[in-house]
Amino acid sequence: MNTLKHITVIFVLLVTSITSAQVKFEAKVSKTKLGVNERLRIDFVMNKDGDNFNPPDFNEFTVVAGPNTSVSNSWYNGKHSYTKTYSYFLAPKRKGNITIGEASIEIDNEVFTTKALTVNVTNAVKRPNDPDNVEGVASESIHLVAEVSKADPYLNEAITVVYKLYVSTDIGVSNWREVENPRYNDFWSQKIDVKGLRIQNGSYQGKDYRYVVLRKAVLYPQKTGELEIEPLTLDITVEVPTRRKNIFGGRHMAEVNRTVSAGSRKINVKALPEEGRPEDFTGAVGDFKFNVITSKSELNASESLQATVEVNGKGNLKLFELPKLTLPSSLEVYEPEHHENVRTNLSGMQGSISDSYTIVPQYKGKYPIPTVSFSYFDLETETYKRVSSGEIIIDVIEGPINNSTGDDNLATTTDGTSTETTPNSNQFAFIKTEANLKPIIHTPFFKSTGFWTSLLLPLLVIPLAIFYRKKREERNADVFGNKIRKADKLAKRYLSEAKKSLGDKEAFYVALEKALHNYLKAKLHIETSEFSKDKIEEILMNRQVNEATVKEFINILEHCELARYTPITNVEMQQDYDKAASTISIIDKEIN
Fold first, then answer.
1. CA 90 – CA 293 distance, rounded (Å)
2. Of 214, 476, 490, 532, which residue is 20 to 30 A from 254 by alpha carbon distance?
3. 481-590: CATH homologous superfamily?
């Protein structure tokens, strides 16, 4: 009898355990009867986390808000309780009995479904919605909107995205944080600083709202076809008035967190027309002026002058290459220095870019700089335009005459005739033809300096080896220091890899960006997860690094990101490498 009793108790405990471990997934509605002007809340609740949640088809309702997700984890008397809820706020589209279908979710590789629910929608009621339903009020009273200036731009035409947060006059917002930031893939992008949040009055979907502009960005599409502008998502703390009174007799404000998203936007980027496209077109889109300017027109041989190729105006100034100068070989020409004086606002890039060539003539004569042309696509007329510079004559007054043959060595004399200039006949004067030899004197090795050194050196090495071993053990025990040294070595290695990758734009800027990040890990002792530009700037400023140096470092990081979408020359890559090395050196000296 006792045995049967024990078996019964064990069976009951086993059944209870199995029952408690069962998965529950059910749908709950805030009411089964509501007016056509009221809002319905439906919760899909589960006691275990799952994947691939599929809500029912709310065809007979307008989804006012949702899904909002909430999770509850608790322990009571040693028992674990878990609840996850997906909530929707619905507005019925018609009167009558409306059936809400099944929802499904996958938990532990098994699909669970809820039961279908039916609600009765009646005529409109005088007091719609529960005033204490703060989540419903908050969902209907706050909206994040992304306003795009143009939905069908040309390739490399500037468009603007302005993010506005609309808030009803009945509620308040205490704070917010960004959950998802748009990365603007396939766009060259530039954020526009928003100085202060100015509250303005406006309307959204026919209702009066207050709004603030949170963010502005200028985008230049780098691909044709349909492109997506990723959404900006915010987590906002909303203050909703309730019917309850506070201790001062005023209305109690309930706080509720809401996640709002501007939603992704699609734009259709048009390709630039093929008809009339010049052969020398390099992608310039906008309205530009073009000049070739020399610092002087007369000089002596071996003196230098500057020839500047400049484009100024409004358009994608950072996203195309300038035309190259073609010069006679008798003029020694150095790689050009690239300069940018570009500012970006909501209308796009404005300013100038230029390549400055240093030219050194070797011989007397007159040398022409041929006409240079520049082509761009004009957005106003939607046609290609070409601008040409005039021919420039460089007059070399004094210097040797070049008598070597070949058209490239011809110069124009002052009387207008062409002459051949002669190079220096003693071309090999730098080679020595007389030897200055001295006899080699042999000295005996025994009792020499080398003899005593080789004899005593092993005795000196032993204490050095012991000292080295001790230091090595101390260093191996320094886990934190080893981590920093490893990051420092990585920075140097990546800088080396970046230098080796000069000419390969993608590999170069990936290696350069990694080098900068690993340098920061070594110097500032921060992890990769903290690599936001604001965080880097804050830490460097706190370590008393000069503001100009900090901005230069941030600019290099930003340029590494942008350079993958823009045409870059080898000269610019070398300049970026030099800037990175110089900036790291300066930070090393300034940092405390």
1. 68
2. 214
3. Nucleotidyltransferases  domain 2 (1.20.120.330)
